[in-house]
Amino acid sequence: MTYLEIKDNVRASVVCKSWYEAAVSVRVIDQSPWLMCFPQTKNTYEFYDPSNGKKYARELPKSLVGSIVRYSKDGWVLMSKEDSSDFVLFNPFSIDLVVLPDLQLWNYYQLVGFSCAPISSQCVVFTIKDYDPGHVTIRTWSPGQTMWTSMQVESQFLDVENNKVVFSNGLFYCLNRTNCLAVFDPSLRTWNVLDVLPPRCPDEESWNGVRFMVGYKGDIFVICTYENKDPLVFQLDLARGTWEKNDTLGSLTIFVSSMSCESRTYVNKGMLRNSVYFPKLSHGEKRCVAYSVHERRYHPREHNLDWGNQLSSNDFWIEPPKNVFELI
């Protein structure tokens, strides 16, 4: 059983009692991400643990008061002041700060993300902007560098807003508003717009809703939500150059938000699997809104999700460290 992927472990566990006991004994439960929130009237931030409904509050460092979260990954957040490109990497659990060099942008960037925690030498912070039609400027920074590295490429790709980025397989996958896909390879410093057909929806206007992109072990997923209809899940098939519609996530659970998306294979008992969790609390702030792909319904049924608010929401998912309770 120790050699099985989690989905095969779960399948094997239903064979008989002895197989069940063996499978459960070696099954590793993924810790679910936490929801991080910023109360509007306080210089504090809160964590919400969806596995038990508990909240934990912390005070925001004075230097970060008024800053906005731009991206989150591996328990760190990339922040800057409004209408500013002076970035800071902040660990809200350990309170560690990494101040990045001045980006020196004369105008606002359109897409930003990073590959992993800045405690790793492999960390790459990535920004992209189109200064003139037909060209985009890519800037990157890694720990130890005193300035950003810049390159310009011919490309007509970015939209004014709602561009998405995910780091997977050593690449930054970028999705624009019209669902065109491009990749940036930070090791080779190459930019390519892929020949991939956009996901097909029942109604083309449906893509005026909110889209989320997430990676899991090399696979790339897009979740599209719109109006009062059920979310659609698509998985990238690079070999065919298409986005394939998925009717199931198997044992996967996906947590989506505008600043970050997380994926887990076997979440805590009591949480939904084969589901998508949203950064929205209900039932007296004790439960997150989730959509069960298997049941094809929301939990709770009366969720009151406002997709416009979700797009602009400052609440996002973040990966807590293993020793989180020692830090908070």
Automatic annotation (TrEMBL):
It holds the Pfam family Beta-prop_KIB1-4. Gene3D superfamilies: 1.20.1280.50. Residues 47-280 form the KIB1-4 beta-propeller domain. InterPro entries: F-box-like_dom_sf, Gal_Oxase/kelch_b-propeller, KIB1-4_b-propeller. This is F-box/kelch-repeat protein At1g57790. The lineage of its organism: Eukaryota, Viridiplantae, Streptophyta, Embryophyta, Tracheophyta. The gene is LOC104787464.
